Amino acid sequence: MRKITIGNYLLERLSEIGIKDIFGVPGDFNLGFLDDIIKNEDLNWIGCTNELNASYSVDGYARVNGIGAILTTYGVGELSAVNGIAGSYSEDVPVIHIVGTPKREYFKRHMILHHSLGTSDSFGAYKKIYENITSLTVWLDAKNAINQINNAIKYAVFYKKPVYIMIPQDVASFEIMADSDLLSFASGFDLEEHKEIIEDVKNKINNSNQAVIISGHKVIRYGLKSDLEKFVNRNGINVVTTGFGKGSVDETNELYLGVYSGLKTPDAAIAKIIDTADLVLIIGNKFTDLTSSFFQLNFNKDNVVEISDTHVKYDNKIFTNHSFGFLVKMLANDTNINYKGLSVLENRVAVEFNPTEEKITYNRLQVALNNYFVEKDILVSDVGTCTFLSQYIQLKKDMKFIMQPLWASIGFSFPASIGAQIASNSKVVNILGDGAFNMVFNELITVINKQIPITTILLNNNGYTIEKVIHGDGKPYNELPKVNYSQLIKAFDPEGEKSISLRVTNEIELQEALVISRSSDKFVFIEVCLEQNDIPEALKGFFNK
Amino acid sequence: MRKITIGNYLLERLSEIGIKDIFGVPGDFNLGFLDDIIKNEDLNWIGCTNELNASYSVDGYARVNGIGAILTTYGVGELSAVNGIAGSYSEDVPVIHIVGTPKREYFKRHMILHHSLGTSDSFGAYKKIYENITSLTVWLDAKNAINQINNAIKYAVFYKKPVYIMIPQDVASFEIMADSDLLSFASGFDLEEHKEIIEDVKNKINNSNQAVIISGHKVIRYGLKSDLEKFVNRNGINVVTTGFGKGSVDETNELYLGVYSGLKTPDAAIAKIIDTADLVLIIGNKFTDLTSSFFQLNFNKDNVVEISDTHVKYDNKIFTNHSFGFLVKMLANDTNINYKGLSVLENRVAVEFNPTEEKITYNRLQVALNNYFVEKDILVSDVGTCTFLSQYIQLKKDMKFIMQPLWASIGFSFPASIGAQIASNSKVVNILGDGAFNMVFNELITVINKQIPITTILLNNNGYTIEKVIHGDGKPYNELPKVNYSQLIKAFDPEGEKSISLRVTNEIELQEALVISRSSDKFVFIEVCLEQNDIPEALKGFFNK
Ligand SMILES: Cc1ncc(C[n+]2csc(CCOP(=O)(O)OP(=O)(O)O)c2C)c(N)n1
Ligand SMILES: Cc1ncc(C[n+]2csc(CCOP(=O)(O)OP(=O)(O)O)c2C)c(N)n1
């Protein structure tokens, strides 16, 4: 037993689960706790420009690191982050949101404090708001803090969802006696269920003439990428990912076919293999409108085995007492599975990019990027027209892919790239539209001053292009004014020492910029000028339902 | 009876209550409704850079116009605006938040749509979130839409709080038969209660030797400024405002004493008059920590008569069935009130600003601004160090003052100025710190491209100065990197045709910049360079409790 403040106890737990950086914005109700953070040698404070951007950054961090933490202030701070945390909830990203709140005595004295709704119990309203977008909310209490903190962390880890911890100023500095035990993440599951599932799946695979695996985002969230790969390779079963699951499979694996998007999968051969399969193993995936051509899925539903964290489902059976991770590992290691059906081997011939003086199009940009990436890079894509390019880029070995195909909040990708870079130290390339960038470009301050060496590729077409495709082409509400983005960068780096800013209009310039990005350890900003009406091949007809 | 779509019916009602401009951001679930807006000749669409900024803008608009409307898209859009709408709730600003949602059939089909939390009933979660920060939430329904719309508008008008209206795509375009009747705002109240209150107040005033009025923000919200003035002038009773109520009284009136902030009121003579009064009439005010020196109010609580919208309270009586507006008007028109007590007449001698070559300080800036303003100007202040300057600036006749002393969300003032300018066409001057501006400067795009002729005075001290005053002076988390703000403006106005950007370091430059601002009809940006440790007189010692 040793003496420790509750604030420091929380920080120790964050370190224990692998958090090294805390994102956020100061506010008078969290300043004391911030002192603990900056004194802590295992943790870095990443001050962001505003709370929405901080919540996007920590999401990107958590997608790479497995978990992340953000600190905001009572009311104004936490409520600015609602959209970002909701995105983490929607896409199953565990983020610990810590909110510095006023001393408890102020509430008991019924004081109308700043950042309140004009009542002395506003914290109740904020907590209720967060109940909708987290798996657990707690208001720390001196007596019960150890238990509350440990419980919240487990909720984040087990459910891969955000949690919300309110830490009153006086609780943060309150000293308690605590053990030095480690958190236990023993999980409850029913081994009999596992055996039954494995037996059934084995029989299905062994009797299948053509099986295929559709891999989803939860394979990434639960850290099962290598287990799934073992399963694929040992049995020689073809695998695809959805746009949501992109990055869950090594895309250089010969058994990997590509991204499957339902009826409108750009490579029709992929859709055909899935539609004709007699066994479709869907692992850790959720079909959403934009990753399924609006639920136009033509495979035979009777042939489906769905294995995920919340349930396993096939024939008329549904199981809910399993461990997703354990089950996938058991499948991967089962030597009795003996698939004798068909499989296709992909021999990916990279299309070379031979730049010309032609204007840049989405399709050519895709070719250029396919040639750009190398192992371990991270591609962070926004949602918009670029989605229909980036999800079809071939990932090199150990590359990661970050996008929000479900939550689809534009602007997300730029701050998320900061988080992804800090978590990985990899080359992070961020691709987004001008509408998206305009929402969040304040975060240039952080990128440039903290010298985050990401590359941002801004696809400038002076408008909300994807919206025009959906509705309102030619309407004023989908037009965007011109911004001189090179000047914008200069505002934060007047001497041009900390960043490289390039504006490219033809393929040769594009190629030159990509070469610079590859070798630079600075922030590289590439503005790609596109024609207003150019769109990627994969987007054509996508919204014609 | 005539045929009209529900979307257009809603727009007609917005026009009827005086809304001329709708702020927001497009999204695929609101694009059809947006077509109705841009086709509508009585309404302008003000597309903003992001939803938080849109929610700040509409709040500024509603504070001037009496009411405002904002349109966002399902999930990502609406949840980005939570902090702004919560601010409107906290500070009693009626804002109608309209959210474009997916077609109703999608929910019934249990589809996992983009912008959902990964469930088909996510709209329920968003509605629940908004229940905490609005007076009413409705999900429009073809059958009941007329009733729902009218009801929501009345909630906004009666309670001076935001309301939340979800309009599914198919409901917006659904045709109904509707009357052409106008909304009725008849309000229920108990005339007997009014008579009793008036009688009691009259007796108290007639027997008082020294009465004083403390006027609050609700006098502004309920449009009672001229009624209160009539009451003050007819009876010769002194009046002060709080920081929250600043702008509710003509500050050139001789009976007006100044801003009262409790124990630490900069002008101690004002606090003394209130502390010694034998009758303190508090009208439409709420004491909050930052406007009351943390509730250090030394007037005699037994002498208080509190008159507000939610209650009237004095001696042991509490009334709740009155109409605030009607009651203030009755008091103003009562010729039987006959105050014979003391009153002080203020003869404000304006201190001239004679600029020198000295560096600019907060205190000198205050003198300069006191000389800058003229009738009908609007001053929009952020919260931070500038609060302790701006709330003590003397407002000229018919000037308006906008600030968030209670919600205190930094960055608010810049987008709010856009709204205030659009609502008024007045000279709007916005004053804020660099930390605040960094949160929201994307909205420069809107200011410059829509040519909103506000003047923004950026107080640049490279840090979160007010936080340093509270806690953490010298700590890295309170430092901000340098930004070249003139370059920043250039990014949006490379030719310098649409804006004037000035950086001032001494008093003479400041004065020159203010002269330019006065005569310009462009966006004028004045960066005032301040010493890191300079603070206004009124802030010194304020946080030493
Ligand atoms: C926070 C947020 N607000 C609004 C939307 C609605 N929306 C979806 S796509 C889009 C336009 C994207 O424009 P841009 O980033 O320029 O990409 P483009 O398709 O033009 O390349 C908008 C506004 C959204 N998804 N997220
Ligand atoms: C949205 C939001 N986030 C965080 C805070 C906490 N906060 C209060 S004052 C302040 C610093 C203000 O700095 P600046 O705008 O530069 O003003 P200064 O006092 O330095 O003049 C911060 C971060 C807040 N009030 N609102």
CATH class of the largest domain in chain A: Alpha Beta
* Mean pLDDT over the full residue set of chain A: 96
Report the strand count of chain A: 21
The CATH topology of the largest domain in chain A comes to Rossmann fold
Given helix and strand content, the structural type of chain A is alpha/beta
Largest sheet of chain A: 7 strands, mixed
Helix share, percent of chain A: 25-40%
Q: Percent of residues of chain A in beta strands?
A: 15-25%
Domain unit count of chain A: 3
Oligomer: homodimer
Bound molecules: thiamine diphosphate
- How is the largest sheet of chain A built, in terms of strand order? 11-10-9-12-13-14-15
Most extensive interface between two protein chains, with residue counts: A-B, 81 and 81 residues
Unreliable stretches covering 5 or more consecutive residues of chain A? none
Distinct helical segment count of chain A: 22
Shape of chain A: globular
Give me the CATH superfamily of the largest domain in chain A.
Thiamin diphosphate (ThDP)-binding fold, Pyr/PP domains
> How far apart, in Å, are the first and last alpha carbons of chain A?
64 Å
Topology:
Two copies of one chain form a homodimer.
Chain A: E1 2-5, H1 6-16, E2 21-24, H2 31-39, E3 44-47, H3 51-65, E4 68-73, H4 76-80, H5 82-90, E5 95-101, H6 104-108, H7 122-131, E6 136-139, H8 145-159, E7 163-168, H9 169-172, E8 175-178, H10 191-206, E9 211-215, H11 217-221, H12 225-235, E10 238-241, E11 256-259, H13 268-276, E12 279-283, E13 304-307, E14 312-314, E15 317-319, H14 324-333, H15 362-372, E16 378-381, H16 387-390, E17 400-402, H17 413-424, E18 428-433, H18 434-440, H19 444-449, E19 455-460, H20 465-470, H21 485-492, E20 499-504, H22 507-519, E21 523-529
Parallel strand pairs in A: 2-3, 2-4, 4-5, 5-7, 6-7, 9-10, 9-12, 10-11, 12-13, 16-17, 16-18, 18-19, 19-21, 20-21
Antiparallel strand pairs in A: 1-8, 13-14, 14-15
Helix pairs in contact in A: 1-8, 3-5, 3-17, 12-14, 15-22
